[in-house]
Amino acid sequence: MKIRVRIKTVNLRNIEFLIEEAFTGIVRNGLMAFASISTIALSLAVLGAFVLAMMGANHFTTEQIDRFEIAVFTVPGAAKAKADALADSIRKIEGIKDVSILDRDEEYAKFKRERPDFESAGLLGNPLPYALRVRIVKADQLTMLSTKIRALADVDHVNVGQETYKRVVALANAIRAISFAGVIILLITTAFIISNAIRLTLYARRREIRIMQLVGATNHTIRTPLVIEGIVFGSAGALVAWILLRLGGGYVVHSAQRITPMFGSFSSGLSGAGLAFWLLLAGAVIGAIGSLVSIRRFLKD
Amino acid sequence: MKIRVRIKTVNLRNIEFLIEEAFTGIVRNGLMAFASISTIALSLAVLGAFVLAMMGANHFTTEQIDRFEIAVFTVPGAAKAKADALADSIRKIEGIKDVSILDRDEEYAKFKRERPDFESAGLLGNPLPYALRVRIVKADQLTMLSTKIRALADVDHVNVGQETYKRVVALANAIRAISFAGVIILLITTAFIISNAIRLTLYARRREIRIMQLVGATNHTIRTPLVIEGIVFGSAGALVAWILLRLGGGYVVHSAQRITPMFGSFSSGLSGAGLAFWLLLAGAVIGAIGSLVSIRRFLKD
Amino acid sequence: MFRDFGFIKPHNIVHPEIPKHQHLSPSRFASVGVLGYNCPREKSVMIYVKDVSVEYANGVRALKDTSVTISKGEFVFVVGSTGSGKSTLLKLLYRDMLPTAGTVIVDGENVTAMKPSAVPFLRRKLGVVYQDFKLLPQKNVWENLAFALRVIGTKPKEVHKRIGEVLELVGLTHRCDSFPNQLSGGEQQRAAIARALINNPTVLIADEPTGNLDPTTSWDIVQLLEQINIRGTTVLCATHDSQIVDGMKKRVIQLEAGEVIRDENKGAYQNSES
Amino acid sequence: MFRDFGFIKPHNIVHPEIPKHQHLSPSRFASVGVLGYNCPREKSVMIYVKDVSVEYANGVRALKDTSVTISKGEFVFVVGSTGSGKSTLLKLLYRDMLPTAGTVIVDGENVTAMKPSAVPFLRRKLGVVYQDFKLLPQKNVWENLAFALRVIGTKPKEVHKRIGEVLELVGLTHRCDSFPNQLSGGEQQRAAIARALINNPTVLIADEPTGNLDPTTSWDIVQLLEQINIRGTTVLCATHDSQIVDGMKKRVIQLEAGEVIRDENKGAYQNSES
Ligand SMILES: Nc1ncnc2c1ncn2[C@@H]1O[C@H](COP(=O)(O)OP(=O)(O)OP(=O)(O)O)[C@@H](O)[C@H]1O
Ligand SMILES: Nc1ncnc2c1ncn2[C@@H]1O[C@H](COP(=O)(O)OP(=O)(O)OP(=O)(O)O)[C@@H](O)[C@H]1O
Ligand SMILES: [Mg+2]
Ligand SMILES: [Mg+2]
Q1: What's the topology of domain B69-160?
Q2: Alpha-carbon dihedral of residues B218, B224, B226, B231, nearest 10 degrees?
Q3: Quick check: A187 contacting B, CB < 8 Å?
Q4: Domain boundaries in chain B?
Q5: Which of its termini does chain C have fewer beta carbons within 10 Å around, N or C?
Q6: What is the pTM assigned to this prediction?
Q7: One digit per residue, pLDDT tens: chain D, 274 residues?
Q8: Closest partner residue to A260 among B71, B115, B170, by Cβ?
């Protein structure tokens, strides 16, 4: 008997019929279509906004970590040539992104601006040594690389800002953990709310499903149009969610940047097409599974 | 005719009947009760979590702003007595929380630790003047108070960290704006999703509503039990949301603190009872309005 | 001569929403005799349907300029082949729908010009047995009856007494805690009849009340309707059951394609001339 | 003598879920004669209901050890007062429910021991007119019929032809694009009859198919059922219409309180002895 059902599944005429059924179903149940699609759209928009914000935050903190620099100071009184030689030998170490030598006079001017309280009367000229700014490729090699640099000739000491670094990494980890948990929870919530909405639409049609069974429809014949309907609702909702996110997201980023221009590089790193793809996938999958799971209780004989 | 309906409303026996109707309705429609309550619970939990997180962030940034200090430096070479006198006169200004005189030697030691690159060979003793740390009551009086302090005798200059202060205030404003917009959007979304769920439950019972009308029930008689039902569903959902938030929120704060101990004072500043109150209010109001609005289309004659 | 229409309140007769020429004036009442049925002078009019047309949204004309007058306390059968407009005529009386044209007056209230908020109060005076029963699916028989009573504000104690009586009358006492989907077709129909009777309606409207009953039970139910009629309730019953119509010898109104083609006192199911 | 039961496949006869003593053995078939109706030797059995009891969840015993055997090509009326178990008996045949005890075999398939996945294929062999019509509310008449055909895989072209024919037969061609709630009671009933006929069923099961029809239409429909019966379909019709039963002179099975109290060939609605 099972095999007969299978053969029906690949019957092209039958598929056509099932798709037709799905679409008349959607058209005839306007309120349900509206309620399902809008619920799916809003749930997915909230989920999507959260994911985008979290990707943005992750991106932002990762960028902060990547920007982390090692400050290398030459021994007191070392000449420019020595600083240049040191920069060259640091560049040769694997894992170094780039090295730049800071301008001593500029640094001193900046220092005086920052610490006007400093009693500089007794000083002869610029008291600062040469400083090199080293950027590295991978944030987690920070300690290892700073040890290597410290061992080089003419290095007085190395400042890796260990404390600040630890804080930023901890913050990044916290954001990552919270966002991961948040996305999982929101995903479950969204799936649940959507399948609830689908369940209610099916509940309103339970008599119809019963009649179809009595007319001799197999569970497969009843289920397929409803699953197609779920997928269509899910995808339509995803599309609306995408539009909402594009409009709303643009506005939020815009106003955030107006208030705080320092958030320059706050971006999720996800393209519009990528976002659309993931939303559609989520909508279609949740719609299909939601329908599939909800129908089961109404197909019980 | 209107008056007759009004009189019915205050009829005690009638109210009893309507409440009875509401509860049999809930009991007989198990699936709907489950679907509505769980949808409301999850939506409110997401809304609540967002509000709590945003209150926490606001609280956190406000605290940062409140902690903001003005550094006041005495003229070079000023004696301890002068610093004491200055501290006293600052304390007299309205809007000052407290003033403390920093230990010059300690400050110098700290400075040397922080800037080991600094060429201190040519210096005679401690180059730092006396520094006073001034905490103020209201962050927005910062500029005004710093101007007043600057005008006092023996003040060399005043450091208000204008740049950092502006950044923190901007950040706080951004968080406030985003969270306000987010709460409004989420509130609308939640209300919409919940009233959609209610609309679907009513749709499944449209025949029932029609029959009640034919038996001679006034719209009021049909509406009241359904609105009570909406309030009960909303409140039940709020209760579940509260439980979820207490359990989940505790866990999140706990793990956040484990990862980043610096988030010590991250708290929403809302008591458990306060949270419960607001959730219940939101649930009941959304449930009532959701029912009220949704019923209208089914009561159309 | 006008004395008999005293119960028709003036605000029902002259209502701003009815075009002037449709206003219920005494002269129009006087003309009901032309319908072939002469309204006895000593009786007052309970149902007055005048020049009513119904056209459904899909273009079907279910009633065509139909007029019917029924006096207080009459017992009338409405017969006609399927789709002839019987149910449509009855639906107009309990304002399930409004006619495309024409006036409907029930117990002195102008149904066609009624404010929506007044409709429930009209329906409370009527007892209706629907062709498809229309029992509340989530309530058992007892609760279905209780709802109909409590809606009109009956005291709980009274409710109990009344339900017991009515269930006895239709012979459904033993099934009072069953839900509609747990009842046989005939039992559902009797529950629907019980609900229509329960609030001592002024007019009882029954649409095919014996379609799912065996001849014996059908006859019992019709006898019951007659009892109720004798106690003063106007009864209007659409039916296909020729044995019952022939056996009762009551007034018969026959519809065909939306028009009254026969209106006989003590008539039979079939036209006596054919 | 056993030759005739060759179409009953062995796996249907001996199924692990039926208690041993209920297995369909030829000797049990031979004993059907005691029911007062003698199964003609030359005909094969189409419906075999043996010692069936039905007790609903609320304790109502709708059928009590009932046995009925109907041969291929018979026309049988099932009569009985309301609530006597007619619809319940029919429900067992299309497996809307399972009996508490007993065996039901339809067209050689053991309905009581059937896997759920086989049920749709049983139902496709049957045409059923439900007492409450059970038309799909979101589909118009045409689509209701089309659904019943397409479910069993009929080609679209064939679907059009067949629907046209059947609508003609029941006289509903002009209302084919109406939705069920836009039809009068009798029109809905005819749509339900059309759907039952449309896939040339092996067995036609009709539960009160004329309850909402006027006598003339009723008679036409029953004539139609007879035509279908003559072409080989087994017809089982539960009804309260005494005129039709008396006029047709077919086999009559009378139920009372869940028991067969009469089974007569060429019977009348009322017991001929009483
Ligand atoms: N809601 C509707 N929309 C469109 N047409 C309708 C609607 N209701 C009824 N009709 C049509 O109006 C006509 C009269 O219907 P009505 O229900 O009044 O017939 P009836 O005399 O009660 O028939 P029956 O004896 O079969 O119940 C029929 O042709 C029917 O199809
Ligand atoms: N789902 C159910 N649950 C409980 N009891 C039921 C259910 N369906 C039917 N019954 C009861 O079983 C008995 C037989 O019902 P059935 O529907 O078979 O009667 P019937 O002979 O078809 O009557 P009618 O002529 O009124 O249609 C009745 O007393 C009925 O109340
Ligand atoms: Mg009708
Ligand atoms: Mg029945």
Answers
A1: Alpha-Beta Plaits (3.30.70)
A2: 170
A3: no
A4: 13-64+168-295, 69-160
A5: C
A6: 0.80
A7: 333 333 333 333 333 333 334 333 333 343 333 333 443 444 699 999 999 999 999 899 999 999 999 999 999 999 999 999 999 999 999 999 999 999 999 999 999 999 999 999 999 999 999 999 999 999 999 999 999 998 888 888 899 999 999 999 999 999 999 999 999 999 999 999 999 999 999 999 999 999 999 999 999 999 999 999 999 999 999 999 999 999 999 999 999 999 999 999 998 998 765 5
A8: B170
